[in-house]
Design goal:
By secondary structure, this protein is an alpha/beta fold. It has helices spanning 11-22, 39-42, 60-67, 82-94, 98-112, 115-124, 146-156, 169-175, 197-210, 254-260, 321-334, 380-397, 417-421, and strands at residues 3-7, 27-31, 46-47, 75-77, 131-132, 136-140, 165-168, 185-189, 193-195, 214-217, 221-227, 230-236, 239-248, 268-278, 287-290, 295-299, 303-312, 343-353, 360-363, 370-374. A hairpin with a 3-residue loop joins β16 and β17. It is globular. The protein binds flavin-adenine dinucleotide.
Amino acid sequence: MGTTAIVGGGVIGLLTAYELQRRGIDVTVIDKSDFGAACSAGNAGWITPSLAGPVPAPGLVATSLKWMMDRHSPLYIRPSSLPTLAPWLFQFWRHCNAREYHAGLIATARLAEPIMDLYDSLDEHGVDFEMHSTGLLYAVLEPDYLRHIADDLQVMRQFGYSEPVEMSGAELRDFEPELTDVVKAGLWVPEERHVRPETLTAGLVKWLKREGVKLESGVKVTGIRSTGGQVRAIETLDGALEVDQLLIAAGAWSGELAAMAGLNLPMQAGKGYNITVQQPKLTLHHAIYFSEVRIACSPFNDALRISGTMELSGVNTTFDPRRVEAIRHGANRCLGDWSRGASETTWVGMRPLLPDGLPAMGRAPGIDNCFLATGHSMLGITLGPSAALMMAELMTTGKTSIDISAFDPGRFSRPAVSEKAA
Ligand SMILES: Cc1cc2nc3c(=O)[nH]c(=O)nc-3n(C[C@H](O)[C@H](O)[C@H](O)COP(=O)(O)OP(=O)(O)OC[C@H]3O[C@@H](n4cnc5c(N)ncnc54)[C@H](O)[C@@H]3O)c2cc1C
């Protein structure tokens, strides 16, 4: 008798372990590094369904070509990576159209619908973490830009969102006094929240340990053994582990893991960076999104985190200091003296990004007992608890209470060679 193995102890793997454990399933979570140490550590921590639109958006091809020429821009494609990235970029650009964007936004917003209740429920069930319910402030440098945001917020009305509060530059500075004069208008979406992501993963690890879930850190999965359309075991550097079910939740590395199971998952890393100031002198009262420059500000209990940029340079965590400077440049324009504090750290992490910008969630094509939950891109925190709930429902009952067919991992599939031969 094997276990249900989850490969990847980021926010997605840990939350799914939580949901499975609550259903009485024997779970083992395996991570090649420390739990919560990869992309789930240094993100902005936002729970913001109003930002649920997929990354490939109408107009992004033209904007990204323009941004490639600007060293301070939010998007960077490393020229030396272009030859390897070209087929993926071509697929990504094909998805930059209004029809797919709208369909993706609706599917993702539907998945996010129960999210605030699920976060409250984590708290009620004894997962200890830092959460702020002060909403999200969209701040723009050109008032016309609010139109883009308002369109998506209009869609969110069908998911229970109220009319956002529109503010002029002067009203914004009353609301959030540290904004500079370059900020001309804004919208406040009171429903949104943010967490300190490191506390969320730490709280989950503590809860899972307490409940007796097996947590194996520093163990790299190197192979997946399957026969007759079933995964039988996973191979690690420490030996093999027999499994009843397998969930691949390995973030930006999920493409590698999927390939071990004979699956095609065109995963890329959308690298992002942050600057975190400990005990900052500046006080912000809300999470703020500087929309044109795509910079996210997250005020935590004892820190201020400024994050942003999307770098496409392959699946690696090579740190490019110029990207941090781009964030610093954007933040200096929009915020008062934000960088003063006790100390400062910088960080790079890889958003798991598929070419259509949607997650891959569901049963692996052709392998009954293998599942994927990955590709949550900019939304792993926003969608995590709901994604985990759907995966636990699917893995225990074969059904989900929310339609996740838009995220079917089979949309990228080519049958494995051995399956074809059979
Ligand atoms: C700058 C930035 C800001 C962001 N802000 C937000 C935000 O505000 N809100 C939001 O919703 N999302 C945000 N995101 C996105 C969010 O961080 C990700 O979607 C999320 O963390 C992905 O979680 P994950 O569990 O899929 O992957 P990860 O956290 O990367 O975890 C994957 C794990 O798999 C393990 N692993 C990989 N390969 C193997 C192997 N072979 N064997 C064993 N283990 C393996 C890794 O060690 C890793 O721990 C942001 C991302 C960035 C970069």
